[in-house]
Amino acid sequence: MSAKLRMLDKAYDEVLKLPRAVKGAIYDFQHKFRENPNSPGLQFKQLQGTTLFSARVNLDYRALLLHAGGSEYVIVAVKPRQEVYDNLDKYAHQINPVTGGIEFVDLVTAESAVATEHVGSAGPVPLFAQYSEQTLMELGVAEPLLPLIAKITSEDELEALISYTPQLTSEVLLELFSGKTPAEVLEQITAPVKASDAVDTGDYRAALARPATVTTEDGALHAILEEGDFGRWKVFLHPAQRAIVERNYNGPARVSGGPGTGKTIVALHRVKQLADRLEPGGGKDILLTTFNTNLAADLRQRLIDLAGPEILSRVDIFNIDKLAFKVANGSGVDSRTRINDAKAVEEWRLLLAEQSERQWDPQFLHDEWTQVILGQGLTTRAEYFKARRAGRGQRISRDMRAAIWNLTERFVKRLDDQQVWTFRQVAERAATLAGSPGGQVDRYRHVVVDEAQDLSPTHWRLLRQLVPESPNDLFIAGDPHQRIYGQYASLGQLGINIRGRSAKLTLSYRTTHEILSVAAGLLGEEEWDDLDEGQDDLVGYRSVLRGQTPEPRPYLTWEAELDGTLDQINEWGGRSIGVAVPERWMTTAVAKRLSQSGITATVIGSDGPRDIDAAVHVGTMHRFKGLEYQRMILAGVADGLLPSSHALALRQQDPARYRVEIKQARSLLFVAATRARDSLVISWNGKKSRFLP
Fold first, then answer.
1. Cβ–Cβ < 8 Å for 494, 464
2. Handedness of CA 134, 138, 139, 145 (dihedral sign)
3. Which residue, 106, 62, 61, is CA-closest to 87?
4. Which of 91, 117, 138, 392 is most exposed by smallest CB count within 10 Å?
């Protein structure tokens, strides 16, 4: 008799802590169990007085299994042999009546971790005394834990408990403890994972099929055991993530969320899901794209890791500017030199100087040209006069538009004379070609976009032309709080209607509650758009991980700050350390100081870290986009550097531009801070940044 075997996500956490030899034995056990659960060597049997089964992993360990009906079994825990038989009455499992997912609780471990001491009328008031058992259960708290939860009187006891509770229980308790009302928790935490059908708490086969039961199948178990956390993202999806991945959308859809909430993971799983639905024998029907070159390379490798190299026969993976050049190639763009935004702004500066024009800021003109004129494909002065300027902030009169149009014509002629095109011009040319009747351009059935907040309007126009309007045409993942390149786009204005097809992820898997709290504070009281002329926020953004509070470090001089950075890295030791700074020249200084002290350090370039195995990676805050490290130092976080002295000078000269620059600087600091998983140090010399508390 053969069987199917899965592993519950909580069992995964337990297994990773076991010795390597035991992990190997679990993998062997899985194969034997699948072939024949009743093989004598497995000692497979139902435990007396329970509905659980046990099976021999090796001489010292046993797997606890739940029968989900038919030939389906789920590993809910792996325990030392003696513990299994000593604690049978303390192992609880259920189908959560709210989510419909399978949950397992080891009450012995949970009770020993909490070790409550203040129980009784004379002790402190329990943390959750104001909430009835019914209220907690309606929010999704696991019923077997209610007696223990009723005894908790301190934050330390709560933190000890949540390591051993089902994930939804942990999230609900932490949010109630932080001050949210039951109604807020219900809306932000429970509702997104609530079962869409009626829950039969005795039907384990139905529970196994629900998104709330996060398990891995046979074929993926080996990858998890071998690769640890790197392998887990391939398999385990939070119920809210899985629902987004598997849903059919009647048009473009968007998922947003703070750093570490798994937007990229969702995007990759979405690509695989779409590819699996394609009929065999076709071509590259799916496009996966992002803004950054090294992020595109990372997406390619991660997609191969997730789905195998064969998926590349159905998926194109390009960073957006490379895609634009591919589409526009042969139309004249290949004969010209291409320049980036920074060089384009410098050309604007030179033009204004030659014209003795002092009314306009070069960056403002560049943004107006790229986001409004190129972004909307405007070709005449009359079209520009009528154009909407959503997100541009500064209002301009008709006379001002006339002056801007004249300057734009001179600027384009200047570039033509130099045989130069900007990357935005290439994207605009590609969008125009793709939208032309009879244009010989390869189109896609599905387009998936990661880091969507970094794309410009010209990019979105191109993508809209490359995929016909149809169900599941565009899937967009991004976070406006991480917009570090100054782009702004209104998707609806560009023909991408996401209304009613938007979802938000709020649970961070990367970093701790303490780091997230500090990082969110760096954003200040600014308002953030949602890529569609609405507002976005970080309501409900949270982590169930706990750690040290980020540490501020003031220094008198840059040299002293370099010494402090070196001392902190020596104190930490080990690897997976990042040092992020506001300006490029600082990376050289940090890397040199570390190397002189015998620490292996590498600088992060446009293609990623030059030496991926170096103990410390050093780079500008822009370069850390998409990366993560166990420990991070943000150095040079001083006024005049972040925000820059140029941005501060705009406060009186150009208040609208000042607000844009300040938001962008806040986003940059937010991105850098949220690269840290466990530890974060923020240092400065002289006057600290006004963004810091």
1. yes
2. positive
3. 106
4. 117
Considering Cα of 224, then 576, then 550, then 646, what sign does the dihedral take? negative
Give the 3-state secondary structure of residue 305: helix
Residue 593: its pLDDT value, please?
94
Report whether 165 contacts 128 (CB < 8 A).
Answer: no
Return the ∠ at Cα 581 (arms to 580 and 583), rounded to 5°.
Answer: 140
User: Encoding tokens for residue 321?
Assistant: 């500017």
Calpha distance 412→370 (Å, rounded): 12
Q: Return the percentage of the chain with pLDDT > 90, whole number.
A: 44
Alpha-carbon gap, residue 333 to 320, rounded angstroms? 15
* pTM attached to this predicted model: 0.83
Phi/psi of residue 88, nearest 5 degrees:
-60, -35
User: Is the per-residue pLDDT at 81 higher than 70?
Assistant: yes
Could you say which DSSP state residue 125 is in?
P
Q: Which stretches of 118-217 are assigned E, i.e. beta strand? A: 215-216
The set of residues, in sequence order, having a beta carbon less than 8 Å from that of 192 and lying 6+ positions away, is 239, 240, 243, 506
At residue 524, φ and ψ (nearest 5 deg) are 65, -150
619 contacts 584 by C-beta, under 8 angstroms: no
Would the pLDDT of 559 be above 60?
yes
Residue labelled with tokens 């994972």: 193
Which residue's structure tokens are 């300040």?
662
Q: Tokens standing for 311? A: 């998926």
- Residue tagged 């050093």 (tokens): 618
Q: What angle do CA 239, 242, 245 make, to 5 degrees?
A: 155
